[in-house]
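ok so I'm stuck.
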Amino acid sequence: MPKMKTKKSAAKRYSFTGTGKVKYKKQNLRHILTKKSSKRKRHLRHAGILSSDNVQVIKKRLLPYG
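replied:
not stuck anymore, here's the structure
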């Protein structure tokens, strides 16, 4: 059976932590930043952790060898 291909779009958006959680960069920090508060922009800088029910979909379908 051939190897499963990694979805490259998902590989660029998600990464795994050492404990198996899925990290992603939060949206809304690219443009139109003047109307957003400093607190909001500061919180958007940090990586988000995907909820556990979506982790199985990412691991199984999109990043099979991640």
